[in-house]
Amino acid sequence: MKILLLGQHGQVSRELQWLLESRHELIVLGREQLDLADIDNLREAVRRLQPELIINAAAHTAVDAAESEPEAAFAINAVAPGVLAEEAAALEAPLIHYSTDYVFDGSKASAYIEEDAPNPLSVYGRSKLAGEQAIATVGGKHLILRTSWVYSLHGRNFLLTMQRLLQEREQLSVVADQVGAPTWAGSIAAATVQLIEHWQQQQTAAWGIYHFSARGETSWFGFAEAIAAQLQAQGKTVAQLKPIATTEYPTPARRPLNSRLDCSRLERDWGVRLPDWHDGLLECLNTPR
Ligand SMILES: NC(=O)c1ccc[n+]([C@@H]2O[C@H](COP(=O)([O-])OP(=O)(O)OC[C@H]3O[C@@H](n4cnc5c(N)ncnc54)[C@H](OP(=O)(O)O)[C@@H]3O)[C@@H](O)[C@H]2O)c1
């Protein structure tokens, strides 16, 4: 199958390339070849390449920077996905797009389901929600996969930052009152491949929006403890971890305290579920690539 993958060096994109390139005709376009803010070029590229499936793994993911550059965030996270959805629909090709737990305000006491009303606290969250709505409005075949707390062995993420700081510092304060599921980009890619295979076999699919994060839950502090334990198992000396409240670690963008996503709809409709977050961490650390 001819697949167009947008985003070349991103965490999820890299893992998708690893899994898809031997099985499909995969065309990968990074920012160097195609700036998603350039709508005319984006349309032209899709029309010229005529993919059978589009996967959008590109996004403006700098959550704090987005507060001071909302135009860029909306161009990439909201306008471009809408254009991709239009072009995909014209080709009758499905569009797989990733979104985020940050569309919610985190005030719910339990895990969020797809029907819960979004209420983003940040520019990033608002721009991603607008992207979801633009895709849904077009109404073509689409999967919007909301994931959370993505990390891998590449790029900028909590795992790599913690691995560095835990070995540099003697004490490290980490937010303990935001709860969610750290999700390895490799788990996201593997589950995406399962969705593609399911669709190819069935030739029918339950398109729409799905929660798509690792199972289980922890806090950023709990995630840091798990990362520290892995370093210690390798004989490394690590910083002493101190739990703090979000209010003690102010950031330009507000983040939800509850980021938990209930992923049972994905399992019910597609038979796909992501691994537990802790198993995902171990798999990530044992899969250097
Ligand atoms: N990271 C998280 O914690 C998280 C949490 C929830 C949901 N998500 C969602 O999951 C998806 C994948 O995230 P990720 O962590 O893999 O992201 P990532 O590592 O930040 O990668 C994003 C990619 O998008 C590309 N990009 C940014 N602006 C672009 C533009 N104008 N034109 C073309 N490409 C552009 C970047 O290119 P450059 O390399 O050139 O900058 C980068 O390769 C995104 O939809 C994100 O919103 C992420």
From TrEMBL:
Entry's Gene Ontology cellular component terms: cytosol
Cofactor details (free text): Binds 1 Mg(2+) ion per monomer.
EC number, as in UniProt: 1.1.1.133
Residue ranges occupied by any RmlD-like substrate binding domain in the UniProt entry: 1-287
InterPro entries given in the database record: dTDP_dehydrorham_reduct, NAD(P)-bd_dom_sf, RmlD-like-bd
One annotated GO molecular function: dTDP-4-dehydrorhamnose reductase activity
Co-factor(s): Mg(2+)
Enzymatic class: oxidoreductase
Substrates-to-products reaction catalysed: dTDP-beta-L-rhamnose + NADP(+) = dTDP-4-dehydro-beta-L-rhamnose + NADPH + H(+)
Origin superkingdom: Bacteria
Swiss-Prot/TrEMBL keywords: NADP, Oxidoreductase
Annotated pathway: Carbohydrate biosynthesis; dTDP-L-rhamnose biosynthesis
Keyword NADP set for record: yes
Pfam families: RmlD_sub_bind (PF04321)
BP GO terms, sorted: dTDP-rhamnose biosynthetic process; O antigen biosynthetic process
CDD domains in the cross-refs: dTDP_HR_like_SDR_e (cd05254)
Signal peptide residues on this chain, from the entry's feature table: none
Functional description taken from the UniProt entry: Catalyzes the reduction of dTDP-6-deoxy-L-lyxo-4-hexulose to yield dTDP-L-rhamnose.
UniProt family annotation: Belongs to the dTDP-4-dehydrorhamnose reductase family.
PANTHER family reported in the protein's UniProt record: DTDP-4-DEHYDRORHAMNOSE REDUCTASE, METHIONINE ADENOSYLTRANSFERASE 2 SUBUNIT BETA
Protein name: dTDP-4-dehydrorhamnose reductase
Organism: Pseudomonas straminea
